[in-house]
């Protein structure tokens, strides 16, 4: 029966077409799954996408429905189920599992599987390893043999062995004992086997015992004793229903290295070699390299110098591509190899040259050190003179101003620079005059021709000259500048002192935000900083003042006050108003609650805007003045709202008869006080928490 089956298989396999191999070297650059559970799946093997494996014979399926997942090798037409992959080696080995054939008998019991399921790899790149496997039989008076064929021969072969149990009572078969024929026998198999089946029989009756036969990895430890032969003890069969078997694989089973058309050895520093276990060829890295020869760049240089056991150098090891070189340290001679002349110390001589060089270098060092010390002394002396002159010429006053303003950067101009900038102080460059002492350092600012927004709003005769369109544009430009500081600067900046006196206007009424003396840079990797409370009464965020939290919303509050100044023409703090109404923000909120918005608005604003537009601006101001900073908009949102208001179409005038009833003159006038602003500078630390 077995012979008939093998002949049938052989003839069927010869009629099949040769499988063309499609190299999938591109898989090395793809994101292919390379693990199934704990099993590594290196190219030419792969899973999923066809570009992840060389051809269908190297296609591996990962069964993740079980725990742990199993890697399965398919495309074996003569095996009813896929083979479980236990290990894949790029040296041309693949470890799988094969069933044990058994025969257990007694006078009243018979459990036999004397003919194993046939298995064939005839048309595939796989064959059973003749160097890694042994055919094994275990039992008493047992005859076991395997029948099979190779890919290149039409002849059927048969190998087997006989085991007996004479004196076998104490025999133990494990990694420390050989299988010599007593209760166990082993025999090697010929090379090139691609298909076989196993048969088992008894030479003579040996009741109440079991016999086993299988092809197995010769390094596998069966952990078997003669007691396992009893049919009443089935732990061996239960434990070893399948045993590991090693397959040899090649890159192409139909070609040699010289005949290869779809060449598989893609890596530089790789070599091709023909298989010794049947036809075909495989690849390996060149000597001195390791890795995967089947992908581009897969073979990497081995640095033998990292491991003292992998090189034979006596003293110094120098790694080279694919090799290494030995060298002796300075003061030694020889080839450096342990198996060569090694390294021997040079004969000692009086180091005349070293003494001369050492003495000369010592004198040179002393000269350089002396020169450097003298240069430091001269520099220190010069610095002390400069400090003396600085103090004599008002430098302390400048230092006090710098400390008071707490600016991060100041540029100190020299007399020569100022002379060049003013054309030697020509009279034609004078734009104004004031007290000047030529012995005291002065501060130099950029000249802004149109003054401050405070000047245009609050000084007599200027306010009506600003149209509503210009007011909205000025407010939009202020908001854009603050949005840039908060969100677009390389490091966020909180201005901390936004007020109309710090908004400069050029000839075209273009806004320039000034006075960054109390501003703070906020590092992106910090969430808290410690600073001093600074700002101006009427503009200072009440939440910051009460809770100690300074955020970008504090600038939003101050901006809301400036927006009120543009709408009402009123000052942020006015001592001429009643005590409750001195603060413009609180005054505005209270008037809005009592529906007296239009009573507060400046006359030109009322005449140039619609009711809807005025209400929208007022609502934006209220949002900016929320006591809870979390409820205020960010400056980006304010910019968007103001840009929308600027495009708002005025449908009708607020000077209609219905609105006239709401208008009245401002109940209290405000005159500018001596300072124009009321500033606060606390002397206690607060913790600034950034919500980013």
UniProtKB/TrEMBL annotation:
Domain spans labelled EGF-like: 301-344
Statement: the UniProt record of this protein carries the keyword Lipoprotein: no
Keyword entries, A-Z: ATP-binding, Disulfide bond, EGF-like domain, Glycoprotein, Kinase, Membrane, Nucleotide-binding, Receptor, Repeat, Signal, Transferase, Transmembrane, Transmembrane helix
GO BP annotation list: cell surface receptor signaling pathway
Matches recorded under SUPFAM superfamilies: EGF/Laminin (SSF57196), Protein kinase-like (PK-like) (SSF56112)
PANTHER family assigned to the protein according to its UniProt record, in alphabetical order: OS02G0633066 PROTEIN (PTHR27005:SF283), WALL-ASSOCIATED RECEPTOR KINASE-LIKE 21 (PTHR27005)
Protein's recorded name: Putative wall-associated receptor kinase-like protein 16
SMART domains: EGF, EGF_CA, S_TKc
Primary localization: membrane
Domain Protein kinase: 350-654
Signal peptide segment: 1-25
Recorded topology in the membrane: Single-pass type I membrane protein
Subcellular locations according to the entry: Membrane
Membrane-spanning ranges: 355-377
MF terms (GO), sorted A to Z: ATP binding; calcium ion binding; polysaccharide binding; protein serine/threonine kinase activity
Matches recorded under InterPro entries: EGF, EGF-like_Ca-bd_dom, Kinase-like_dom_sf, NOTCH1_EGF-like, Prot_kinase_dom, Ser-Thr/Tyr_kinase_cat_dom, Ser/Thr_kinase_AS, WAK-like
GO CC annotation: plasma membrane
